[in-house]
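Shipment paperwork, digital attachment
Item: protein structure file
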Amino acid sequence: MTFYITHFGWNLIKNYMPVSALIPFVVWLGINSVLRVLAPRSALTKTEMLTVFFMVWLVGNLPTTGWAGYLLGDISAPAQLSSPENRVGEVIGPLLPDWLFLAPNPVVVGGVWVGLPDDVSIPWQPWVRPVFWWSVGSMSIVLAGFFGSVLLFKQWNEIERLTFPMSAFPTDMLAEEPGRRFPAVFYTPVFWIGFVFAAGILCWNVAGYFVHTIPHIRLFDHWRSMAVPLGRDFPDYYLRIQPVIMGLSYLCPLDLLFSFWFYNVVNIIKEGIINRTGFSVGLQGQQAGSIEILMLESHGALVLLVGWSLWISRAHLKDTLNRALSTNRSQDDGVPIGYRTAWLGLAASVLFLGGWCVSAGMDLWATCVQLALIFVALFGVAKYAAATGFTFLSPGGNAGLGADKGATVMRLLGGTANLSPGTLTTMWMVNRNALAGMPIRLTGTMSIPHYFKMLGNHLRRHPLIWGAIPVAYIAGCLFTVSDSMYRSYADGGMNGPLYDGDWSHLVQLVPFVEGTRLQYADPGKWAVWGAGMVQAFVLIHIRNRWSWWPFHPAAIAFPTRRYGFSLLVVWISKLLVMRLGGVRLYRRSLPLWYGFIVGYLFGVALSTVVDFIWFPDLGHWVHGW
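Attachment content:
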């Protein structure tokens, strides 16, 4: 999988439910179905299939743009790209710890960017130390997600009864009926209708690779190509149809579906009015425009939602702590590990990550704030991914700003004047892609609760269940980094394997680090952030008072820009189904959307295989944002 993604499918990694994990699942589902007929003893059981799928899902975002490509680029970029013009080497270079970055070297660093001659061997050894420390820092975040999932899964699954759509899809696809060899969904006609619709469009477009007179069907094209201009100063509306997102979102409750597409329209109007009137907030010289205002508002709502989630979980968390501290070990019924182990593991993971940040140069107080912001981002995305099935949730929305692990909000609200140069530099390290990836692509903390849900009654204390997580992640790190490094030295990292997207953020940090440009704590921005919290609080109060209220505050915390139309289509479809046929018709219609997903995955896989064989140098865009 790593080889395939690194060389031919790098664009399959876009979110925390990557197509790079779903395609192998669908392929093996077909193979396993055939094995059940021809060689039943060789076929995997449902639990084995789900475990393998989870392990692939856990590491599905590690290759190329998910993590490894950025990791190698971030480690080597300061030594390779620093210049008198950008002044990174002069200002920030002394602040970069040598255990995380490489020193300038024409073979080690220069070779990974431009390639090495055939007669020069790859210098693996200098990479061992920085890759190890970045990897264990990333691992601490994943393990914190695992231990936190153990503590919160019962609350989310049994008390709040979240729907976990991303686990429902593979589980339903593997459901069987007595007397039948193939999964039950294969015997459902509507499944094949959805499959043929999605796969037919993509297969038609693949035929156009060879016969240029065949017109291209644009239904699943890139979101920017589906833009509808709404006028000067107003952002475009995107008629984006994304089958995986739509199929999973069909399992989402109607109120959440309505809230997300409706708030997308509200956000467009708000952003347009702010742009048209020239409204801004903030002190002179550091005013926030429309994008910053909306991002601060959404982050304030996110903080309130996370705080509220912890508040309503307080009884359960107290119970897990009491069971962990009890001398009667039989009372500790945590799975797949005990609550005592989970609490100790969570504390150890957080302390290790905090120590990592302090050792890298961040002040202790700033480390505490940063850890809290990381928790808010990852907890919020993990919970509402489980509640909605949306695969695109990102702190600050999809506009890009604020999509990190909290540094943007920290700088906008608190300024940079009180942040030491070491703190500012370490904030860049923590919040960019090299440390576990960005929240929208960080599969570990999002996939683990779904893994527990997929196992169902098989979730119990067993080393193979919890051991699959560190084994899969460590193996994924080793294979993805090794493959990306080999390809970089062989072909030149600048030709694709390395990504320097984080470098521009480091260059922009130079005036703040040297103190020639300062930002200060800004009451106006704090007011906007607080307004987001107030909106979320009011909506929570209304929903608790009137159950029919359709607007959910999660839509404010995670505003969507690209997929509002997709959610509108799904909302209309599900609303009509529920009104016309109720729950019975809804359940009978699920295979149609599963077929829509599988057909799309089949078409994407076919396109990448065709590109691999006939168009290895050019390729065709088939999946992305």
